[in-house]
Amino acid sequence: MIYRIVLSIRNARYKSGRHSTAAEVPTICVGNITVGGTGKTPHSEMILRTLLGSEHWGMSKLAFLSRGYKRRSKGFQQVPYDGSAALYGDEPVQVKRKFPSVTVAVDKDRIEGCDVLVHPEKAAGLKKCAFPDFPAADLVLLDDAYQYRRLKASLNIVLVDWNRPVTEDSLLPWGRLRDLPSRLYDADIVIVSKCPYALDAQEKMDMARTLGYASYDPETCTAVRKDRPQTLLFTGIKYERLQGVHDSADPRYIYSKKLILFTGIADDTPMLRHLSDNYKIVEHIHFPDHHSYTKADVRALRNAVRRNPTAALATTEKDAQRLLDLKALPDDLKSRLFFLPITTDFLSDREREAFSQYLNNL
After folding, report:
1. 263 in the same domain as 207
2. What is 247-270 written as a DSSP string?
3. How far apart are CA 337 and CA 311, in angstroms?
4. What is the pTM for the complete model shown?
5. Into how many domains does the chain fold?
6. Does residue 355 share a domain with residue 330?
7. With contact defined as beta carbons under 8 Å apart, do 310 and 335 qualify?
8. What digits encode the pLDDT tens for the residues 158-210?
């Protein structure tokens, strides 16, 4: 009850917009109302691919700004291509390695972060900024900034897990909500993630009603609640082929048909189901979200391998970024260590076009 009251007071304070500041360039916020598990990173990557492939933004200077959860560095930092997850966070490092042309930075103060990205000369004056070398940003993609109310984004995108709608969840600590469910209706675009790809129009309308909308038009991708229209879109997950975390990974292990699965993410259930279709999961080790791997964890993995000498080790792409920081990872683990790449996409061309149009209109 106290948590709800605090959130309500905070929401009322920022509702008028008088306490929020907009950046000098267009900003896109990708966020959620729950504690992890909605797929912010693959959606951010999808947005970057869409922007880079568009006529409007393809030749522009794009930037990705994250808080850098659990990083050891402080203040504003530009993330280099060979940066470590320990210093900058696993998600920023992953994005930089996938999109080398995009400026990736971390800063807990999103207003300062946007300001420095737009005015690179200010980075030279920051005492703790180790890599102040990047072009002025034309657009900034904000990772997990929906609760950062001091910054007013040009476009707010909120993700909702198909398997756990926010309207059927509870606030912390009883549920997974870190914000009021009503905050869903303040967004410009709501994306229901992790949907089955065979979803039909009726199932989309049913989900819209579950989320509290009075109506939903699949043709226009418009949901209406209390006469306020919102764009409601649906995406699904696509898994790619297992890839080696290190160059020394032996691809023959992929064909062993036995996997030791270990993850440090909020919800690995979809990944487990996918891999179970083609592999026998002989052991499943679940670490906390954004887990920092230790020598004790390495010993646990080696013990699992001894129990299953023909099995491969499989983990997530985000975990792979953190594992690359481990200098003492033995060669026998490196040879059988793989990650499962993940992408996300809209369920229909109509939704994809509607989303692209939103980005082009920024």
Report:
1. no
2. TT--GGGGGG-EEEEEE-SS--HH
3. 10
4. 0.93
5. 2
6. no
7. no
8. 999 999 999 998 888 888 899 899 999 999 999 999 999 999 999 999 999 99
